[in-house]
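User:
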Amino acid sequence: MHPQDTFVQHNNKYYILANSSYVDDITRTLNFGDTFAIFDRWGDANPIGRDLQGVYHRGTRYLSEFKMSMNGARPFLLSSTIRNKNELISVDLTNPTLSLNTGNDISHGNIHINRNMYLQDGVFYERIECTNHSLVYTEFSIQLECNADFKDIFEIRGTSRKERGVKKEPYLSANDTLTFEYTGLDQIPRSTHVKLNPVPHEVNDRSAVYQVALSPGKKFVLEIAVCMQEGDEMKSVLTYDEAFKNLDHHLTMFKDAIGHIASSNENFNEWINRSNNDLMSLLAQTAFGVYPYAGVPWFNTPFGRDGIITALFTLWIAPFIGKGVLKYLAHHQAQLFDSFSDAEPGKILHESRYGEMANCKEIPFKHYYGSIDSTPLFVVLAGRYLKRTADLDLIITLYPHLELAMQWLDTYGDIDGDGFYEYQRKEKSGLYNQGWKDSGDSISHTDGTLAELPIALCEVQAYVVEANRQMAYISEKLGKPELADQYRQKADHLQYEFNQRFWNEELQSFILALDELKEPCVVKASNAAHALYCQAVNQEYAGAVVNTLLSEEMYTGWGIRTLGNKEARYNPMSYHNGSVWPFDTAIAAAGMAKYGYTDEALRVLEGMFETAQLMDLNRLPELFCGFEKRKGEGPTAYPVACSPQAWSVASIYAMIQSILSVEIDAFERQIHFNYPKLPSYMEELLLAHIPLGTETITIKVKRFKSTIGLDLIDKPGTWKVVTVK
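Assistant: Predicted structure:
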């Protein structure tokens, strides 16, 4: 079979189509919990083809068209930005040339239009201010056009549907509210209420018109609130100022719980601050604590793997995120068999969805368990969280879930009982590939032929090694020494078998996977970096893996490719076969540091820093194309990448931890720095208010002539800082 034939066979219908575009090359994105919005730079949402712009809530687009015009024409764009806290889009516009009833014209650039928009608790708010800077009395019209198509996010992504629910004709209610209604095939009524203040002069079924008359220096103010209602739940609509005050409180409530990082390099600080604000904006409040939603737009929902890795990256500086992730995933751990959702007792969630298509089982993702790695990573996070916090109470509560997860690994995770852990979907509606590289063509052989199921991935074996080690640590702390010995011995055995079977001399790295016949996929890929991260690599192989990851085949100068550039399926513009994922690169840096290759980790950080400086808003996206770094050019964008995306924005914390080689042991009440390094462009790095239970510590890392030193600014008396330099 030709490799391309197997690609067609294995590719699945949930792939994000490239024509699900953002329309404009630069868009403006807002997110708040279960709601997100995407506008163009003018602040409009345009209904052009199969585009993505609009306002979404719980997996459904509640506002598909939202445009403002002036005398029937689009205003001129002056500037457009997202404020630093990621909470508000601010757009400055000005008028085209206006013909007045007096026979005079107002030339363009005399009327300033400012649009400020944000999301808060399921409601979209906007304030439009028009100011007359001309010397004459001016009349003009402002027109708003709205529509709601109530499409499921998977429709926007490209999944076709045979039928949809019933959409009613829009109508005006209470003189100031345009209402759109839809009842889906899941029999849940959904409605969009566009509340306008002041009451418009003219209204039809989808638009409102204001006749504005302004003397010189005077201002017209229009406030809009768009409420998205699912079922009987109706969100409270506040005034623009009241809602913004609530939003500001929400964004600052986590500020004291996340340690503050600042450096002597202002450009680096811009990257840190953007990442911090993006991270806070993605933290959704759940009944179990906060959970970092995976990313906007495609994955604005809880994902098991993404949430765990984000929590691991931020554990040293914001352990409360890990606590929320552990509690949420424990509550949603599978208890029963369900082939449609790939659920088996003990398995940890892959993702959760809320929309009509999930409710109607047109897609299997309402509560979906089709990932091989969420379960061992859940155990890894629990062990590392315990060491970081000494929170025995939580771990005692979670212990039955951890035991069930380990039972799943050996009962269902090792399908053929050979000691390697593999995946196989239960139904064709599920994901074919169930590691983090889950596109249909991501696991292949040397000639490009796709691997057949079941598949045992390189990184998954390493995750299971580390899961057993963390269970040994947890068991020790819970007073179960014999059980701890069993887990430790098993971890050592699994590591030995992994290194024996997956190491490849020719690659100077680990193979990508074993296929259904246990034939090796001898392919150079970034998956080996995850084995370093879990310290599942024998010491004699570690240096070779590091060199391979930083070779010309793998390292672009910006980051590490997912697939080597000499492999058959290499495509720098693909999703998983040669692109660069910042989180994957951060995993590599962290793994290098764990084996003492801190200079190499520093090189990776410097590449990511340069990348961030060249990205819009200093924000690392989900991924970008894996072209080689070219002089005078920045990285090439991937057209439908999520931005912001949780594990990408959290990558900076993992890389800073890597170059400092900092580890926190709450039981020993010690903070360890093992040969810390600073990049050449940085003289100082401040770690302020790092949480240590109910206390905090502040440390300044400083460059001296021949060494790196620590300045303890504020340290709890019972804690020790241990450094090797």
